[in-house]
Protein: Gamma-glutamyl phosphate reductase
Amino acid sequence: MSEVKQKANLAKGASKNLVTLTTRQKNYALNIMADALLKHQNQIISANKQDLQIGKENGLSNSLQDRLAINSARIESMSEGLRQIVNLNDPIGEQLEEINRPNGLLIRKIRVPIGVIGMIYEARPNVTVDAAGLSIKTGNAIVLRGGSSALNSNQKIVKVLREALSTTDVPVEAIQLIDDPNRSSVNEMLKLNGLLDVVIPRGGASLIQNVVQNATVPVIETGSGICHTYIDKYAQPEMAGSIAFNAKVQRPSVCNAMETLLIHENFAKEHFQSFAEKYREADVQIKGNNMAKKMVPWIEDASDEDYATEYNDYILNVKIVNNIKEVLNHIDTYGTKHSECIVTENEENANQFLQEVDATSVYHNASTRFTDGFEFGFGAEIGISTQKLHARGPMGLPALTSTKYIIHGTGQIK
Amino acid sequence: MSEVKQKANLAKGASKNLVTLTTRQKNYALNIMADALLKHQNQIISANKQDLQIGKENGLSNSLQDRLAINSARIESMSEGLRQIVNLNDPIGEQLEEINRPNGLLIRKIRVPIGVIGMIYEARPNVTVDAAGLSIKTGNAIVLRGGSSALNSNQKIVKVLREALSTTDVPVEAIQLIDDPNRSSVNEMLKLNGLLDVVIPRGGASLIQNVVQNATVPVIETGSGICHTYIDKYAQPEMAGSIAFNAKVQRPSVCNAMETLLIHENFAKEHFQSFAEKYREADVQIKGNNMAKKMVPWIEDASDEDYATEYNDYILNVKIVNNIKEVLNHIDTYGTKHSECIVTENEENANQFLQEVDATSVYHNASTRFTDGFEFGFGAEIGISTQKLHARGPMGLPALTSTKYIIHGTGQIK
Structure:
């Protein structure tokens, strides 16, 4: 039996056990895991050094090296993340509906674990800890397949976490890590219907596309974000400037940052020049449509491809538009249904935008940067779903649950 | 552009319009559709006669001919089904959560349409009407791909429904029927990411497996049912007999009928012989394990394959067991996670069964035959989901919705 299949089988076995655990038992294990990370941090950091060394030899970029690096502060933050999960409400067992039928049947809809989660992700080793913690809290077993560049770090982290579990009621086999760094192990996971109940990809567009294209196991797609901000004719200029600047500049590398700014012509005439200057001071490169270029001659041409690009960088498309219809069409054509914002004091335009724009999160007068589990008050997230089924937007603990109908009868027959 | 792609595009266009409709506009259209079916019933029945004629020539079985046949009573029932959908609450716009953040952001989670639903199904033409009605009520456009044996009937029904829509605010293009009877049109639908938001297969195991194996569009799997009833040592004999008989005999052809009866040895010793007699009187063929055969010599051998078969017929497997652990293992091995029942007066055993059996619907002291949208009080169902994500069990209107976060700010930035 292949490594992937063998570990998925062990995870499935563990998941049967996890279903029966109480919140207290799960929280106890999470705290022990948090302690163990701190206690064994030197081992983890030294395994991480190996990964960094290999990364340097293979020419891993500085920013990827930074994402990969683990130090004492990062271990502390992983450990603290587990303790925060302890403090979250346990969704398992929660009753979502209670139906009393005329024939006397009592039907209750209850939250239950999904079963076994497959997680496919890239370089950041903190995902290993977060995903394991969120899974255990929700009574799920997890099969982790991290990026090969973090293999040593992930192996050590998982070893530490599993050793911690061995002293608790949570089965050690609830956490599985795939050691095989070949792509074939990913592709094998994608076809494990009956063993994996869901696969969650987290990473770049090509990783996610591979999963979506090849999985026969259900997928929760976490996606890229080509996010827009629309400054309406009726926007308050100061607010508009502040939101548009924040959405691009505060942290351009993340999925909820803005890539394209749409501005109503009337507003742009008065304010776009000063906005552009402010972006220039922050070293933001601007590309624009003809109307934008007429107003600010130094900006470059924006192509269709630019509008369809998630820069994750200090680059911004600006399109001056004549009406909200144009805005809706643009977002429909180029958006990735992640986070979209309208800045306006006009309620009618706001409502039209909020209703007709199809995205996980639509904002009126606030920066798209807030689309995030912590900012929404969920406490932790396993990713941001950009698909329409099961979960949409930041995924907290309930996104890692399924449901089941429990029917209490007194001998009813049909 | 292929027929499938062209029609999916039209549906996507219509879906943008559907998002903006009020409940009143949708209900008006549903009533007009219901009227139109009655008014044009002769056309529909005569198109159906063509299908039946072709079916006979192609050797379509009597039971399939019966499923395919449309008469005046069946049209009335389709029409009545649409009016029942009118009376259901419209889930669209429903607020599921309201979060007030310390920074003043108001975050609301709202039910929205999924967008465009692809429906792939077999012979029964009433599914055409039900699926169209449920989709419109939930603001979704639908692309229907019915079985080729019902093509003439479906074409006429869809023509009538679309003509009805042309006098309403619901766009005609909200209902699309794929005319191409080749399997390639199904396979094309399965890859239409970006146009179809979900595919729902309804039909036999091979249809569903084809969809699950080949779709890159998210799927809601509606499944087969290998359902079990377990009669515990502590079962009330009369209740146990009545539930076990009903679950098998009342309508064996449906997915929530029982295929395998598990009986605790102690109970079986006293009662299995009389149960077996009752089944024999109802022409139910019984296959059993060794212990069962010892008690009732005339029953046949049950193989592993039998336990894994959805008979949908007057055939029953009986397995005598020694303890509940054996029951849980058997259901885990052979069940399809559809509907499972324990009959017992012992609360502890009941609770263990209800918690540990992994299925859409788990019953204590009631027949599995109740797993059904109408019986659960949902009023109508688009199918019974046997997967863990998005929707599980009978799917009413909320299963055809997605959600969206609407965030109201006053200039918040991060």
